[in-house]
């Protein structure tokens, strides 16, 4: 990369280096510092160098060829470059920018974001060739439209639907349109089946309560039942394929919607937060969670750390926070599967918020102990242990701490000192707690190498508050360390 940077002269090299190593923010700061009377010339030199043809090896043809210097940089650099030019476009030389965009469009396998940024820059400089196009690729429109229609209430159309519908007819290929029509018919059948079930339920409730009604009210109920039966027959007549519908547990996701999830890898954090809100991931029914998670785990490449964190937060955090009894099998399956693939995002987006909110009750603690034992490696367990050392403790959190200590984590001296200090602060609150006593016993038996004189004194003070039958065992364990 140093060889490539040497192609630039003076200030242009500094700008290229800032883009390469610091991204858009650093490049903009560098540009602001260098701005002067010769800004146009400086930018023109920078852009012309990026457009210069350079010799390179074509691996597919196994021969020497040439391509613009800009195409020898990474996709991340290209995105940062286009974003930077978008921010400063009023002062850029238009012809040089057009030459750069022409070079970038020569790439065969352009990323969707690069295509969108190229189109945006054409709009910025008023190019008549490509400036009138949409920023969304046809495939991206298909993916987003499918997601929005699949989860968003059809009666609450928002800006996504309005925007996508503007380009729907003109930008989709006939194959895509046919495929979408098939999916739309399928969704309509599902909706009709759901409506019929709701009407049947309503009719049953009315029948059950009719015994306590007046004669005139009973007539009204009978009329309502007759109308409902007529509507049932009408729906059955309109949907001859209802016997082919999948069972309730699979209505949320099936294989036909798998391609739509590819868009998750194309979004930045802000866009993904918006998309998760539109799709109402937080409202995903628990029975469908394992099926949905299996599709997430099948995505290639893997989700980035930030993307996985946002999805886990929206999909699982609310459900875990609201637990008042042991988690369902479906919720456990979903959490453990995502935690095994994305352990650190799960720790940050699911475990840490619950601990910080002070809502690690027995149901949450049972789930977290399972994650600690089955899904997390030693460094992730240490990460969770660090989370537990802030704020107040409760019986549920004590279960998690004991599970972590029982697995023999290896904290640093500083972290262990913080832990013993926290033990001292919390001991007056748990004089009769067996869980707190077991934590101290585990510390005295499994962490003897950490026991200096100061920590022994701290634990002696903690034991003095203890009122459980384990107190003698704790005193004996401490005495063995002191000898």
TrEMBL record:
A GO cellular component entry from the record: Fanconi anaemia nuclear complex
Per UniProt, residues of the Fanconi Anaemia group E protein C-terminal domain are 228-481
Q: Which Pfam families match?
A: FA_FANCE
GO process terms (BP): interstrand cross-link repair
Q: Where are the transmembrane segments?
A: none
Q: Which CDD domains match?
A: FANCE_c-term (cd07439)
Q: Which Gene3D superfamilies match?
A: 1.25.40.480
Protein name (database record): Fanconi Anaemia group E protein C-terminal domain-containing protein
Per the UniProt entry, what species is this protein from, by scientific name? Electrophorus electricus
């Amino acid at each position: 990369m140093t060889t490539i940077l040497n192609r630039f002269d003076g200030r242009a090299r500094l700008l290229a280096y800032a883009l390469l190593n610091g991204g858009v923010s650093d490049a903009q700061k560098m540009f602001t510092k260098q701005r002067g009377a010769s800004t146009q010339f400086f930018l023109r030199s920078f852009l012309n160098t990026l457009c210069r043809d350079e010799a390179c090896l074509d691996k597919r043809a196994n021969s020497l060829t040439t391509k613009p210097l800009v195409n020898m940089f990474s996709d991340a650099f290209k995105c940062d470059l286009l974003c930077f030019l978008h921010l400063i476009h009023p002062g850029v030389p238009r012809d040089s920018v057009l030459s750069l965009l022409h070079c970038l469009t020569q790439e065969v396998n352009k990323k969707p974001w690069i295509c969108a940024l190229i189109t945006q820059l054409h709009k910025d400089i008023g190019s008549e060739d490509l400036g009138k196009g949409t920023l969304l690729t046809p495939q991206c429109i298909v993916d987003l439209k499918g997601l929005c229609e699949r989860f968003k209430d059809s009666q609450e159309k928002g800006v996504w639907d309005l925007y996508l519908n503007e380009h729907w007819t003109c930008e989709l290929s006939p194959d895509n349109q046919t495929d979408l029509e098939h999916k739309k018919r399928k969704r309509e059948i599902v909706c009709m089946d759901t409506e019929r079930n709701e009407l049947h339920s309503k009719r049953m409730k009315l029948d059950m309560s009719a015994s306590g009604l007046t004669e005139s009210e009973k007539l009204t109920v009978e009329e309502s039942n007759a109308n409902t039966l007529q509507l049932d027959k009408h729906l059955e007549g309109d949907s001859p394929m209802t016997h082919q519908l999948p069972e309730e547990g699979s209505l949320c996701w099936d294989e036909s919607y798998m391609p739509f999830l590819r868009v998750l890898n194309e979004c930045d954090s802000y866009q993904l937060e918006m998309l998760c809100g539109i799709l109402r991931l937080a409202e995903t029914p628990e029975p469908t969670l394992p099926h949905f998670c299996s599709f997430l785990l099948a995505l290639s490449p893997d989700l980035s750390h930030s993307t996985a964190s946002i999805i886990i937060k929206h999909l699982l955090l609310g459900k875990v926070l609201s637990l008042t009894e042991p988690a369902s099998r479906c919720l456990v399956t979903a959490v453990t599967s995502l935690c095994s693939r994305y352990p650190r995002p799960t720790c940050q987006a699911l475990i840490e918020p619950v601990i910080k909110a002070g809502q690690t009750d027995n149901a949450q603690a049972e789930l977290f102990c399972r994650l600690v034992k089955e899904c997390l490696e030693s460094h992730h367990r240490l990460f969770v242990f660090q989370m537990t050392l802030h704020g107040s403790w409760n019986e549920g959190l004590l279960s998690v701490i004991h599970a972590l200590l029982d697995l023999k984590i290896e904290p640093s001296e500083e972290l262990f000192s913080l832990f013993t200090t926290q033990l001292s602060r919390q001991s007056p609150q748990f004089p009769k707690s067996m869980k707190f006593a077991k934590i101290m016993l585990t510390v005295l038996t499994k962490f003897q190498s950490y026991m200096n004189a100061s920590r022994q004194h701290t634990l002696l003070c903690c034991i003095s508050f203890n009122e459980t039958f384990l107190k003698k065992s704790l005193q004996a364990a401490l005495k063995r360390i002191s000898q």
